[in-house]
Each structure stands twice: as structure tokens, then as C-alpha cells.
Design a protein that fits this description.
Layout lengths: L28 E6 L2 E11 L2 E5 L11 E8 L2 E13 L2 E5 L2 H7 L8 E14 L5 E14 L3 E6 L9 E8 L3 E14 L2 E8 L4 H31 L2
Antiparallel strand pairs: 1-2, 1-4, 2-3, 3-6, 4-5, 5-6, 7-8, 7-10, 8-9, 9-12, 10-11, 11-12
InterPro entries: PilZ_domain
Protein name: PilZ domain-containing protein
Amino acid sequence: MTGHGASAKTYEMSNEKYKSKGGILLHSRTVVEKSNFVSTGVLTYAEGDIIEIEMTEYKAFELGDSVKLTVYSPGGIYVFTSTVVAKDHGSLMIINPPQNQKRFAEKRESPRIEVNQNGAIVAFTPIGGEKRELPEKVELDLRNISISGIGFTVRSEMSFGSEVIVDAELDLGFVLPVKAEIVRSEETEQGFYYGARYVDLPSDRVNSLRAFVLKKQVETHFSLKRIEQGKRIFK
């Protein structure tokens, strides 16, 4: 199978018909190769940091395995290396390298994952103003999260408006301090919802955040997949 790499060509996404939620890799026949073993499957999911390959020989791969993928996409053959991060009955979840996301997926921000986590706002800074510590932490309910930002609700409307940066502590199973600029707000049945994007997030916190988002993305995908499979069974 290694011979395919010699003729591989990258596909410049110039034809609009190949654009889709999962990019041009979706539904492509894919060869997955590790040391002394090669198998073939179909790439069925490509979103954010993960891709899924459905195959019958998924049990031959272990979490953490380094693999080489040869994807036979509509635009040609594409070869890259990656790592197995999860597996389910009949499929492998593999890290989607950043260069793939830039080249093959639609131009968009990192997908936000629905979550049900807690946190608190400890201070805020009006843009162009001085930082203001809150006398008491304001509890928040974290509704969604991504590598680029968060969405959360608070029970009462904060008086800082939209042009502000908040200092928050997110409870993700570990405490993650972040600074985030509010970019939208609206009143909902659960309280006041705010969408925010991170500001100056240190690299160590980015790594912790990426690991959390990746884990949640895998869990969410497998959960939705089981629900869909259940619906088909009972039709």
C-alpha cells in the first residue's frame, strides 16, 4: 500500500460541488496502515479535530496507534499520518490534522460542542477600561465550547453589556481560567446567554482545552450515532 503515496496529489478545492459539511474527504475509500497491518474502510465523518473511518477490522487497531491514511477522495489521492484516539463497534476515530481542516473542510470556525458544565465569572474589563473584580463570583452554566470560544448562561443579566472581556473559571473536570470577549448576548428561558471568544489563551491552557473538546466531540459523535442506529432498527 505504500506505493500509493508516490502518486498522491493534493486537491485544491476549486470546484464548488465538492464542498460539504465534512469536506471532500467524506465517503471516500480509505486505507489505514500501521506497522505490519493494513486495512480498508470508508471515511464517514470529518468535523473539527476528528475523522471517523468505518471498517470491519477495527479491532486490529489500538488507542494511540500511529497510522498512515491513504484517502481516495473525489479530487485524487491524499496521504497523511495521524493517531487513533478512540474506537467503537465498526469504526476508528482518528485525529484530523490541522492542514486537513484548512485544505479540505469548509472555511468555518472550530465546531462548538454542546456541554453541561459549570463555571464562574470572577472579573470583567470594559474594552478600553480598567479591570473590575467582582465582590462575589457569578455562577455560569457552560452550554457549548470550542477551541475558539464558549457559550454560557447566567441567571441574571450582567450589567457589563457586550463590549467587555470577562475573566472566568471553567469547571471541565479541572479548573480552566480563561479570558473571553463577549461577542453576543440574548435573553433565553434559562437566563441570559452570552457567546464569547477567548483572548490571549496561553499554550498550556490551549492544549488542555483541545484535549477536553476532543474527548467531548468523540463522546457526542458516538452518542448521536447510536441514537440514529436505534431509530433505523425500530423503523
